[in-house]
Design brief:
This protein is α+β, with helices and mostly antiparallel strands. Helices cover about 15% and strands about 35% of the residues. It contains 2 helices and 11 strands. The two termini are about 30 Å apart.
Length: about 150
């Protein structure tokens, strides 16, 4: 029988739970972290069912709780195929972010790299813009959209 997880606590709430043992981890891809009603298996093989408000986008580090709050599970960004984009010139990285944003691409943005879902057309474009593009398997933490909001 699955544990029903119906409450989301942002990762900064975890500080109040130091007396508890570490919660089980639920490793999810970026796409899976957008599913609000779905059956998953935690890393320790516990079946769980997400029953969250529609439109919930989970973040790496979020805690999920059962309705009674007695069961906690921590969300982790699962390694998945990605393209990691780097450049020695930060302006080129900014230009790449601009071009990808114009295409409404889900994008992880950091000071040193951009990360996106593999796409051969975008990979070619980025290479032509003079950026280094590496296909790898890594956690993917895309930015929320301009109209997404954290509660």
């Amino acid at each position: 029988m699955s544990i029903v997880l119906s409450k989301r606590l942002h990762h900064h709430h975890h500080h109040g739970h130091h007396h508890l043992s570490l919660p089980p981890i639920l490793s999810l891809t970026a796409e899976e972290r957008t599913r609000s009603r779905y059956h998953f298996i935690t890393d320790d093989k516990t079946p769980v069912y997400l029953q969250l408000p529609r439109g919930t986008a989970l973040q790496d580090g979020d805690l999920l709780a059962s309705e009674t709050g007695d069961i906690l599970v921590q969300v982790a960004a699962k390694a998945e195929p990605v393209l990691t984009v780097t450049s020695d010139d930060s302006i080129n990285l900014l230009r790449a972010a601009y071009h990808l944003g114009n295409r409404h691409v889900s994008l992880e943005i950091t000071p040193t790299y951009l990360r996106l879902t593999p796409d051969s057309v975008l990979e070619r474009m980025l290479t032509q813009l003079g950026l280094q593009v590496v296909a790898e398997v890594a956690p993917f933490r895309p930015q929320g959209g301009a109209y997404s909001h954290q509660h």
